[in-house]
Structures are given as C-alpha cells and as structure tokens.
Amino acid sequence: MNLEEKVKKVEHIFDGVVVDLDVETVELPNGKTAKREIIRHQGAVAVIAITSENKMVFIRQWRAPLGQETLEVPAGKIEPNEDPSITAMRELNEETRFEADKMEFLNSFYTSPGFADEKMYLYHAINLKPVTNKLPQDEDEFLELVELSLPEVEVEISKGTICDSKTLISILYWKMMQ
Amino acid sequence: MNLEEKVKKVEHIFDGVVVDLDVETVELPNGKTAKREIIRHQGAVAVIAITSENKMVFIRQWRAPLGQETLEVPAGKIEPNEDPSITAMRELNEETRFEADKMEFLNSFYTSPGFADEKMYLYHAINLKPVTNKLPQDEDEFLELVELSLPEVEVEISKGTICDSKTLISILYWKMMQ
C-alpha cells in the first residue's frame, strides 16, 4: 500500500529561535485532504560520557516546558553545516569541561516524529578526560554538573528527575555496556 | 544553586489539533529575562507488543514531519481525562487488532524537554492475543501492521525505517527481556 501524503500547501505560522511551526495541507492516499502541524528543528546531539569511576555525567538544568529541574545527558543543538560529531565534542566541553579522544556514533533518532522533525544523534565519548582548552560558555545558561553511578541513576529515574527520551536511551545503552 | 526560571509573561501563538505553541518570557536566576518557545501536547502512550512467535508488532505509516514512511511501535494520544493504560489498550486494539490481559507500565519520559511538554507512557502488553471486540478505526488513518524478529528489527534500524525515540526505547527494553 502506498502511504505517502502529498504536500499541497504550506502555511508558515511561526519562525522562532529554537523551533519553527508549519501547517501543511496534505493529500491522503484516498484522495481526501488533511492538515498536519509540523515543528521544524535544526537537530541535536546527545553524549554518553562515563568517568573513570564508572559514573555517567549529567547536566542539571531548568526545563521551561516542564516547569521543573531535570538531569539529562550533555546535549545541544547542531549549528548550521556543523558535523554532529563536532557538535558533540563542543557541547561536552562547554557543558561539562570534559573532552574525549573520539566520539563513537551509536544511533540517531527522531524524538517525536508525529509532530516534529527534530533528529538526535547519540554519541559515546571515548576516553573521557578534563579539557585542556575551555570553550566559552553561554552566560545565560545555568547548569550544574552531576556524576551518578548506575544505582544512583535508578533512584533519579524513580524520582522523575531523569525523565527524557535521549537520557533514557543513553542509560539503556550504558546498561548494555556493563 | 537555584536554577528556576520564573514565568513573567505567556504569549499564545497557535492553538492546533495536535500541538499548541506558547512563547514565555522568563526571569533567569541572574535576574535577566529570556524567551522560551514551548510546544504543548496532551501526552501519548506507546506499547511493546510481542507475539507468541517472539516478534515485535510495528505500525508502518507516513510521517509528514519527516516526509517518509516509518515503522513504529503502536502509539497514540491520550484523550482528556483518560488513564494512559486505557489509551494503551485502546490504541493497541485500533491499530493492531491485538489485545492483552493487562498493560504493564514500564516507564514514562518526555520526548523533547528542551521545547515540548509531550509525555510518553510506555507499556508492555502482557499475553497478546487477537481482539474479540474490534474498536472503530479512523477512516483517514492509513496504517500497515508489520511483525519483526529481533534480527529483522536490526535491519530496519540500519535502513532508517525504525528511527524514533519511543520505538528505540521499546526495542532496548525488549532486548533486555530476551
């Protein structure tokens, strides 16, 4: 069965800093039309960073959409024309002051394909160590670094502080590395 | 450190069927203000459904934001005041014509906490079997049912057909159940 929806019209609703919003009118396989609300995002990376003490590195930050603090793996948006592995190395430096010998690509995935095109590239930072050349940090970004063992991770999941898809995927990969 | 951002103003940009968009003006911990673009979503469920032949049940569908077909685990939006386990049973029936003795809750997570409040509840369908009472299907929803073994799943991941966060999390849980 051909499932394709043909785009008939695109209405640009919003151009933001992080997201844009389009409403598309599409033709369904049965010839009828429907509306699709689509969030456009430039894509992002997430990094599994494990210390020599076998702890995972997390960022504590405020998440406005949730109205709460979370613990998430280091992550950030891909700049235009930036290779995702470079983004991963840069964000790890900026957010955690760690660097790695290399970034091993594990997987990529769309975070919410029903309404958004955000694609997330997941890397494993190989041979983690303190940075020698500190990249400048955003003065309006408020972060705290937290290192947790696997049992401590389980506690934070049950408390709801660790609560997002990229971080859960990272932890599941980490478990499989044990 | 107190990381909280205090909401000073909310501007409603868009009220849609699937998403709403707000732009919030927030006060940062250092007293400065910033804008936050926030997608509001009613939340959703995803279901790990494993057949008696040890295959995972997937839905093939067109995803407008990606402009491609995907294979995803059965999933759907939570209706107002609906218990997520009821949503899970309903969506499994509507999308796959399977039902389960019960829905075991595995985890919940925010799909993209940087810009969206969508919360996903993940269930494992216990004792999968064909439905006895078929719930009505949406005539404008075009789906195909696909059952895959774990090696077949790995092929679809490498081809990029299996490519979203809830489905990847489901597969990682399934691997740990083997």
TrEMBL record, chains A, B:
- Taxonomically, the superkingdom here is Bacteria
UniProt keyword annotation of Ribonucleoprotein present: no
This protein's cofactor list reads:
Mg(2+)
Q: Which GO terms describe its cellular component?
A: cytosol
**Pfam families per record:** NUDIX (PF00293)
Signal sequence extent: none
**What GO molecular functions are on record for this protein?**
hydrolase activity
Q: Where is the Nudix hydrolase domain?
A: 39-170
What Gene3D superfamilies does the record tag this protein with? Nucleoside Triphosphate Pyrophosphohydrolase (3.90.79.10)
Name the UniProt record assigns to this protein: ADP-ribose pyrophosphatase
* One GO process term, biological-process aspect: ribose phosphate metabolic process
Q: Which organism is this protein's natural source?
A: Ligilactobacillus hayakitensis DSM 18933 = JCM 14209
Keywords in alphabetical order: Hydrolase
